[in-house]
């Protein structure tokens, strides 16, 4: 069954001793998020800092002590990278963006519009069926962008997660954001320090009821070690719920939702630390639990289930896709690790070797295929020396049209009109063209690229910030694209490091929003829609409607977006303001869950989307 959880006198010398101990110890510097650092790094500094914090907390309280720790760290960071430098950098980026974009016609290339602060880095983002966007990441341990910002290799209380909701309906100011802190947990790191769950660098996908399943995270130490954590975020109550731990720790895993609504979890560094990717594949929820279907079906204390077949990816965050044949396609970073998984028989078979060599953090997109679900995937990015794109279709690879140049850390999204757009990117993990951990960036990595229906790419306008590692993008119900992520660039260009808004979001209006008035979509069915079923929507502009499209919402991190999907709907007739439509044939074509329904005119201009739910249980 589903269940729902619903100062005394202070001794000055003790505080002074705690502060002095912290000051004598160098600030713990986490290893690179790519885990280039070694697990043998000295633990003396983190242990000393933890002891100091514990001593201070015993006197003035945990919250007050944490505030002191943040102030001390901010003082250190401001010396190496003062606010004047951040402000000047952001101003220079604004000016170069305006100069670059003056030559791009919005009706052909779209345009970047709003740029505003966010309380979170947006290492992970998810478009929710409520219209809000979930952002989550980690509490920073460093304010100098030339150093690693996150707590990858730290142990204890500072290795913590955080999460927020952004409500676009409330605008772009601080009031538009709501903190939705993850549950407080005790991690198996020997510190016995409760903290908000460090679920950064986890994997995630949607359940049929619109909830987001989040799996894994970072225990801390060992160059980055995997957590067994399992959560769901409920967009309806705006709360997190914890489930039973997975059978294996996972840091950098991938998750995909199959045709039955259950989630398949693969890869990730194990609890033993960097260099130990787990081959264990799991299913959530386990078959003995029902699939969370209705909005009030909250999985709590549910277990995952180990699959009989394994997934021995050598490198983590593989791209996973559930295509129209109902199979799970696991496309690893290594050219020889391309696999097909049968989620029913729990069998793994080989796919042909990808033509390109090793690819790091690059995009992969299930290509639109009309009225049926996708049957091919386009793999692109991940190698700064290779601008080519590669398509897997019918069990074989073909080389497709190149982009203007190679880039890693890019995000490629499907737009409502079926075209593709690449945003973000870098030369390497923390290298934007001028050396690692150097916030200065080559302008080209700030330019978007657009792919039309013929597969041709062209460069477009530049975004405000360069965004590489941990960058993200998604399409919102109003048809705009939200861009965020890359904590290094966000703190390097923070207009006010003291206001608690250390992230940023930028919005882009695709070209279709500059080609005339939008069709109207006034009403859609409130209940669930079965597959291969006729239904009606109402529109005040029925004569303007040429197409109807379902676009799955995105939940994305580390250039991995397993949830994207674009489907055309058959128009069965028009009667007054009522437009008859027909849903995709099967759950393999369109897995059960929430979709954004757009009506488009002959020029590809979309309506504002309304949410529909596919699948009847």
From TrEMBL:
One GO BP: carbohydrate metabolic process
Domain Galactose oxidase-like Early set span(s) in chain numbering: 518-613
UniProt xrefs under SUPFAM superfamilies: E set domains, Galactose oxidase, central domain
First and last residue of the signal peptide: 1-22
InterPro entries listed in its UniProt record: Gal_Oxase/kelch_b-propeller, Gal_Oxidase_central_sf, GO-like_E_set, Ig-like_fold, Ig_E-set
Key words of the record: Signal
Keyword tRNA-binding: no
Chain positions covered by the region annotation Disordered: 72-97
Stated name of the protein: Galactose oxidase
């Amino acid at each position: 069954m589903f269940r729902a959880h619903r100062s005394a006198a202070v001794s000055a010398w003790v505080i002074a001793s705690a502060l002095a101990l912290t000051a004598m110890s160098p600030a713990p510097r986490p290893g690179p998020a790519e885990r280039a650092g070694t697990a043998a790094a000295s633990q003396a500094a983190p242990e000393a800092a933890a002891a100091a914090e514990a001593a201070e907390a015993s006197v003035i309280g945990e919250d007050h002590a944490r505030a002191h720790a943040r102030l001390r760290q901010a003082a250190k960071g401001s010396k190496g990278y003062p606010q004047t430098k951040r402000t000047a950098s952001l101003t220079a980026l604004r000016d170069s963006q305006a100069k670059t974009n003056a030559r791009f016609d919005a009706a052909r290339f779209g345009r970047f519009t709003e740029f505003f602060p966010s309380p979170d880095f947006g290492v992970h983002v998810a478009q929710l069926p409520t219209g809000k966007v979930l952002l989550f990441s980690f509490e920073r341990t460093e304010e100098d962008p030339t150093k690693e910002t996150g707590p990858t290799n730290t142990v204890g209380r500072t290795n913590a997660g955080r999460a927020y909701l952004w409500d676009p309906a409330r605008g772009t100011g601080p009031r538009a954001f709501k903190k939705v802190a993850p549950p407080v947990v005790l991690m198996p790191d020997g510190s016995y320090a409760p903290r908000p769950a460090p679920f950064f660098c986890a994997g995630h996908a949607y359940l049929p009821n619109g909830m987001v399943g989040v799996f894994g995270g970072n225990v801390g130490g060992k160059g980055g070690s995997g957590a067994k954590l399992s959560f769901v975020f409920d967009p309806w109550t705006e709360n997190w719920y914890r489930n039973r731990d997975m059978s294996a720790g996972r840091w950098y895993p991938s998750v995909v939702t199959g045709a039955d609504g259950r989630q398949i979890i693969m890869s990730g560094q194990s609890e033993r630390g960097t260099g130990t990717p787990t081959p264990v594949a799991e299913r959530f929820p386990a078959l003995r639990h029902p699939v969370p279907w209705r909005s009030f079906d909250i999985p709590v204390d549910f277990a995952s289930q180990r699959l009989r077949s394994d997934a021995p990816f050598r490198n983590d965050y593989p791209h996973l896709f559930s295509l129209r044949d109902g199979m799970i396609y696991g496309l690893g970073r290594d050219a020889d690790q391309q696999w097909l998984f049968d989620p029913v028989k729990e069998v793994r078979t080989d796919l042909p070797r990808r033509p390109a060599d090793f690819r790091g953090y690059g995009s992969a997109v299930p290509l639109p295929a009309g009225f049926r679900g996708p049957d091919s995937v386009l793999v692109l990015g991940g190698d700064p020396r290779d601008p080519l794109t590669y398509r897997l279709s019918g069990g074989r690879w073909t080389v497709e049209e190149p982009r203007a140049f190679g880039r890693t850390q890019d995000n490629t999204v499907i737009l409502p009109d079926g075209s593709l757009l690449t945003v973000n990117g870098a030369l390497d993990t923390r290298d934007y063209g001028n050396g690692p951990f150097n916030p200065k960036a080559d302008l080209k990595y700030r330019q978007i690229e657009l792919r039309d229906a013929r597969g041709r790419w062209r460069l477009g306008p530049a975004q405000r910030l360069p965004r590489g590692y941990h960058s993200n993008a998604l399409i919102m119900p109003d048809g705009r694209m939200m861009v965020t992520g890359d904590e290094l660039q966000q703190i390097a260009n923070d207009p006010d490091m003291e206001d608690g808004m250390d992230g940023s979001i930028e919005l882009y209006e695709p070209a279709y929003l500059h080609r005339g008035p939008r069709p109207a979509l006034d009403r859609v069915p409130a209940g669930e829609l079965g597959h291969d079923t006729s239904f009606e929507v109402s529109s005040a502009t029925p004569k303007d409607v040429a197409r109807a499209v379902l676009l799955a919402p995105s939940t994305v991190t580390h250039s991995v977006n397993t949830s994207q999907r674009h489907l055309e709907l058959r128009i069965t007739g028009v009667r007054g303001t009522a437009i008859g439509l027909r849903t995709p044939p099967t759950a393999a074509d369109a897995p059960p869950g929430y979709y954004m329904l757009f009506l488009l005119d002959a020029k590809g201009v979309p309506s504002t989307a309304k949410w529909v739910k596919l699948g009847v249980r």
